[in-house]
Amino acid sequence: MSASDLLIPAAFLHKELPVRYMQSVKLLSSTDMPSYLSPTQPEIQTMIKRMVDDTAYLAGVSQPKDPTEFARHLRHIQWRHYDTMLHLRRAFEGVDELNHPTRSDTLFWDSLLTLNIGAGILIADYLSLLDKSTNLVNMFDPLAVARRAIAMERDHVAETLFAGNLSKVPQVDLITASPNEKMSALYVKEHLERILRDVLRCSLSATISRHSDGTEMPNIKLIVVAGNEDIAFKVSDEAGGIPLSQQKRMWSYVVNSTFHDSLVEESNPVGVTLPSPTKNRLAFARVMARYFGGDLDVVSMEGHGSDFFIHLYKRDGLEQFGLDSAEEQELCTSANQAYCDAMYIS
User: Fold this and answer.
1) Using an 8 Å Cβ cutoff, are 196 and 223 in contact?
2) What residues pair up with 231 in beta bridges, in sequence order?
3) For residue 318, which of 68, 164, 260, 339 sits 20 to 30 Å off, Cα-Cα?
4) How far apart are CA 318 and CA 345, in angstroms?
5) Which residues are CB-contacts of 338 (< 8 A; sequence separation ≥ 6)?
6) Contacts of 319 (CB under 8 A, 6+ apart)
7) pLDDT value at 279 more than 90
8) What's this model's pTM, rounded to 2 decimal places?
9) Per-position DSSP letters for 264-282, written without gaps between them
10) C-alpha span between 208 and 157 (Å, rounded)
């Protein structure tokens, strides 16, 4: 990709990132914040100051004319973005578990995280274009990602709980309706792997807990199917299911983890630092899936098990930037197609 081609996404980022940061500041300063947070908290104050400073920093950068020079500014912003998200993590860790998380609280976190996931991906994608001449968001084989997620998660559970003894970890069967069919998905490969690992961890942890009495552990199934519009994944376990009264809690960002405490680990998928590795990771997995127009849902039968469904759209999506048609046409050039194809907020 030529330097002149890179100027188009550079101009977009120069305009878009300050908008996202100020929208985040507005959320963090609003009266609609969850009751357990306050704009006066040190972590929240630090986040607001960082975002205001970054907006001012970008305002002081002239309209991009040199992609490499603009990338230097983006690397500075990227480092600060990760640090800002660490402050959000500290704010999460200071929150006591809520017995009845509200819908407005979940919507607040969905909005804030979507804005910041987007900012992180946009920056990382531009730097990937410059450094590697390839988009962060591109086509890949979801079956290969599923195999890797299974292997890595089983290894992680074995190492963490059983001193590396893989025989004590439930088997995960990878099933596809058409084994010879070539599948492809437009997404961030590392994000799909993280989503699958989080869901598999939930099923593995629950299965191990349910059969801690020594009874034989049933296999977990990961089914992958390519439809006309989407790639669908189903993780199916026989781990006893989730009581109906507890199912809403799966999507709260501040309840205790649905995983075995020992299975919690740090994670930094490309383009985004997840704020809370010690709380419920399913909520974060869902907002990551939804960022590109997909979704994550659960159907559970108490006394039997749970089915987790992940959907990724095959068709191209366009993030709702709030632009008029002329601006959209200007952005949707060949050099900026990845942003227009992939950056969608549901």
Assistant:
1) no
2) 226, 312
3) 68
4) 8
5) 125, 129, 135, 136, 137, 138
6) 118, 339, 340, 342, 343, 344, 345
7) no
8) 0.78
9) ------TT---S-TTB-HH
10) 10
Minimal CA–CA distance to 106: which of 257, 282, 272, 263? 282
Please give the structure tokens belonging to residue 116: 């910041």
Half-sphere exposure of 47 (CA within 13 A, CB side): 31
Higher pLDDT, 285 or 259: 285
- The DSSP result for 37-81, as a single string, is --TTSHHHHHHHHHHHHHHHHHHTSPSP--HHHHHHHHHHHHHHH
Q: Is the dihedral of CA 282, 288, 291, 295 positive or negative?
A: negative
For the chain, the average pLDDT equals 79
| 220-226 and 172-176 beta bridge pairing | parallel
Core vs surface per residue 143-159: b (16+ CB within 10 A) or e: bebbeebbeebbebbbe
- Name the packing angle between helices 3-28 and 42-59 (round to 10°): 150
- The dihedral region occupied by 317, where left means phi > 0, alpha psi between -120 and 50, and beta the remainder, is beta
**Chain segment 43-69, per-residue pLDDT in tens:** 888 889 999 999 999 999 988 899 999
User: Could you say which DSSP state residue 217 is in?
Assistant: P
| pLDDT surpasses 70 at 4 | yes
High-pLDDT (> 70) share of the chain, %: 79
pLDDT of residue 233: 96
Res 222 pLDDT > 70: yes
What confidence score (pLDDT) does residue 334 get?
33
| 124 neighbors 190 (Cβ within 8 angstroms) | no
Q: Return the number of other C-beta atoms located less than 10 Å from residue 56's C-beta.
A: 11
